[in-house]
Design a protein that fits this description.
Layout: E1 8-14, H1 21-38, E2 46-52, H2 61-74, E3 96-97, E4 103-104
Parallel strand pairs: 1-2
Antiparallel strand pairs: 3-4
Helix pairs in contact: 1-2
Length: 106
């Protein structure tokens, strides 16, 4: 649905036929994290509803993310932004260190 205010809204739905509450909640959490990462790349002005189908059950996180990005591109809702990384973090963000001092990017 097109929005006139230029904002974006995203909803996630996992049907009961796909499994028990634990399974459904696991996929909702995964999709919310994927959406958090890709939200800066979604063109503003749309409301989206993401439905998990049977084919998504058992898929790895990276497979779900790639599938969602592919669908957004196919729907022409994906926009490349040179200042935003696929993880949703902006370039030039400070580096962080892990618990034992090893350096990680992001």
């Amino acid at each position: 649905e097109r929005r006139d205010d230029g904002g974006r809204a995203v909803g996630v739905s996992v049907g009961r036929r796909l499994g028990g509450a634990v399974v459904r909640n696991r996929y909702k959490r995964r999709l919310r994290e994927i959406l958090r990462r890709v939200l800066p790349h979604i063109r503003p002005g749309y409301n989206l509803v993401v439905l998990v189908r049977r084919g998504g059950i058992g898929a790895e996180f990276s497979e779900l993310e790639a599938s969602l990005v592919r669908l957004l591109k196919r729907a022409n809702l994906w926009q490349e932004d040179e200042n935003v990384l696929p993880s949703g973090e902006e370039e030039g963000a400070p580096e962080t260190r892990g618990a034992k001092g090893e350096q990680s990017e992001g």
